[in-house]
Amino acid sequence: MLAALLRAPLDLQAKRIPSFALEPDQVMIQVVACGICGSDLRYYHGENPWALHTLGKPLPNPPNIVLGHEFAGTVSGNTISPLRGKRVAVLCFKTCGRCDQCRSGRENLCKNTMHLGHGAGWGKRRYYPGGMAEQCPAWEHLCFAIPDHMSFDEAALLDVVGVGVHAARVAAVAPGASVAVYGAGPIGNAIMQASKAMGASKVFVVDTYDVALEIARLCGATGAVKADSTDAAQSLREVNRGNFQVVFDTVGTAETLRNCIGLLAEGGTAVLMAVHDLEFAVNSLDLGSERSLRTSCNFRIEEYPLSIALVSSGQIDVRPWITHRFPLKKVSEAFETAFHKEENGAFKIMIYPDS
């Protein structure tokens, strides 16, 4: 089968490899659509963002990872399963179910996770499965049938939506809350829309990229602020008429994190989405008056069907995200487009194995 194979850092090719054998709890997915995630770009460069977020430490990646964890397709007709022939969205990770995190409802923090498109938890093998391929094995109980009116593109992006939904729940976004999101990429956009779905009265985004700001407006942001030479934090205060109950940082620099903390109202919560090996200084006075700083990691399994419902009902709209489409055989060109997004006007790039 044809697959997007990351043989080593900076070495990504569309290459034919053997099809993966199924484990007893798996079904085979005929992949129809797969998104390029920002984490895929980091894997390409040799980072391991899953290890940074979940394990709290950098780890090397194995060779020969088939990239892709934002995908959807049809359960193969050769599979013995009630899902055979069904259109499904795929939850891309399986946790152990035995550790303290799993048993306490925090399975998104399980250190024994097996993850499609990453290489995590598989042990040593020749190839590691992922969704940028003609076929991909997936765990049967983590495949969710999608409504007839939901496209494969929408279903493939449910992983992004899940991250946004979980972040909004971590922050305990409440009806009437004012929310700011630093970084208006797909994750920031998902957080913005999830916060609105949870009842936030005002949700502003800030970014340097005009395409992201325009898509945020299309998706219902209260306002979209350009982070340029002016003071973006002060601009946010002015349009909100004060500080915010909740602020999200999807960028993860020392500057953006300080800005997010500085934008918090009393009792407010800042949520860091992008964890890097980075030291930064914080004055503890800035966290006074019951302000809090949290991180958000992946999403819980129960939040995936919730994400399906939010997209299916139109409360979250991912369709404006997609700006570019490529056949799998041109995956290298697709990644080059992603790396130079501002030159190409790219936001979310989709890969299609059958094109």
UniProtKB/TrEMBL annotation:
Membrane-spanning parts: none
- Source domain of life is Bacteria
Residue intervals of the Enoyl reductase (ER) domain: 7-351
Keyword tRNA processing found: no
Give the keywords, sorted: Metal-binding, Oxidoreductase, Zinc
* One Pfam family here: ADH_zinc_N
Which co-factors does it depend on? Zn(2+)
Q: Which GO terms describe its molecular function?
A: metal ion binding; oxidoreductase activity
Q: Which SMART domains match?
A: PKS_ER
Q: Which InterPro entries match?
A: ADH-like_C (IPR013149), ADH-like_N (IPR013154), ER (IPR020843), GroES-like_sf (IPR011032), NAD(P)-bd_dom_sf (IPR036291)
PANTHER family from the entry? SORBITOL DEHYDROGENASE
Family from the record: Belongs to the zinc-containing alcohol dehydrogenase family.
Q: What is this protein called?
A: Enoyl reductase (ER) domain-containing protein
Q: Which organism is it from?
A: Abyssobacteria bacterium (strain SURF_5)
Q: What is the lineage of its organism?
A: Bacteria, Pseudomonadati, Candidatus Hydrogenedentota, Candidatus Abyssobacteria
